[in-house]
Specification:
By secondary structure, this protein is an alpha/beta fold. It contains 18 helices and 15 strands. The structure holds uridine-5'-diphosphate-xylopyranose (2 copies).
Length: 470
Amino acid sequence: MNKNVIESICCIGAGYVGGPTMAVIADRCPDIKVTVVDINEKRIAAWNEDDLDKLPIYEPGLDAVIKRARGRNLFFTTSINETIASSDMVFISVNTPTKTKGLGAGEASDIRWVEASARQVAKYAKGHTIVVEKSTLPVRTAAAIRSILETPQNRNEENTSKATFSVLSNPEFLSEGTAINDLESPDRVLIGGEDLEALDSLEAIYLQWVDKDKIIRTNLWSSELSKLTANAFLAQRISSINSVSAICEATGADVREVSKAIGSDSRIGQKFLNAGPGFGGSCFQKDILNLVYLCRHFGLLNVAEYWQQVVELNTWQQHRIYRLVLQNLFGTVTGKKLAILGFAFKADTNDTRESPAIRISKDLLEEGAFLMIHDPKVSSEKIYEDLGVSKLETNNEQLFISKNVFEAVNEADAVIILTEWNEYSKLDWALIAKKMRAPGWVFDTRSVVDPEQIKLAGLNFWRVGDGVLG
Ligand code: UDX
Ligand code: UDX
């Protein structure tokens, strides 16, 4: 094989990152055979579904890309070893959650699946294989991967002498809900590594649809650290504006006006300045905690403390929303019916990982409220699982899940909007008010409803960043 030309790619991990990323690569590079592998048979079967509504993840525009590429040069399979053996390049895109026990528990990322993937690559790869870290990883993981690949005992007898490897870091910056657009028109593509030929090979793939000036090359460690830092900066902006939302509520300022005013400074910019119920998603908290762990490891305690505060402020904001609901409902929600609109961590995804709705709902359940939850894309099974309750245990007692907003608000004492789904900005509040129990409250943590409509409907209204509106 010409070392510079990639003809076949294997991606280990068919999740929110691996699936869409490989779909776009296959779509844009019809000459490359792209195979996504996963140990989860159900997930692979869902990726192979004829009915594109049944793909395992919901992402606008993903179905069209899958339709074009699947079966042509994009494949989903559980045959991991065979796929590794026949690929020139292997992306590792498995999950790396925060460790729950042992050294670094609660902070460091658990990279056991990355390590397992590297061992599989070491065992089954043939010829020269470029291994690309796609998962977000602690800095210097590439060194661990390289060491696993280069240890002769990890190789298969017949491959030992023949297989050679290069390790690159190529972090993903896609944001769920806009993943396809982010992949098709990225702000930048970051590639870290030392092996020039391998760097050229990966760059050649992206050059099929990305301008050369958007491709940034760095050393491995800078690439790994840039991913953690980018997420830390984004999350920090959200914690900053959420902290300001509390000051606004106390002083009579309006956080939307403050966001606009400060965002108009071109040095600050308008994006990522929406106050809300706190950030969720699989990355922000995990990556900051990783950074905190790294800082502590190197004795940079002040730096660790600084980033830790971004996460703490976020947790505080989530509890604050629950306390505000309680306060405004005369200090008790026991036995009251509360409609939760939105359970996903943001709009346009069915992902609930670290969703603020989980913590807020748990707080309210703990307080004795009856929750009626609506989300257009999250399944009721997932909601039950996230809240840690079995369906039988709570059905008809504390939890009711509906795919119909009007059913979810029936006899509610309050409606709490936690995700900014577009449909929530178009609700008929006069009709909703008729279904609710007076004095009905609306808590808008995402600034999606028109206060005027709520007022006309005769409902009480609290909104993040300006509090109770008279
Ligand atoms: C990604 C990144 O890889 C992670 O580092 C980042 O911080 C969050 O996003 P994501 O695609 O969202 O993860 O994770 P997930 O949807 O959980 O998908 C990972 C997939 O890897 C799962 O389908 C899982 O079954 C698979 N997997 C895991 C394997 O195939 N092999 C393993 O050994 C472990
Ligand atoms: C993030 C990063 O944006 C992406 O680059 C990285 O690759 C993975 O992590 P994602 O978690 O999918 O992407 O979504 P993002 O749009 O960043 O939102 C994260 C959380 O912040 C959501 O809960 C969202 O509602 C919240 N958010 C975002 C706000 O509360 N206010 C904002 O202004 C922006």
